[in-house]
Amino acid sequence: MQTISKTLKIFLIALILSNIVLMACATYFYLNNKQNLNAERIDIKDRSGKNRIVIANTDNIPQPIINGKTYKRAYSPAGLIFFDKNGDERGGFAITDNEETNLNALAFDYQNADAIGILAQDNKHDNYFRAGLLINDKDLSGKPGHNINRINLLTENGNASLVMKDNNEVPRIVLKVDSLGNPSIEMYDHNGKVKWKQ
Question: What keywords sit in the KW lines (predicted)?
Answer without folding.
Answer: Membrane, Transmembrane, Transmembrane helix
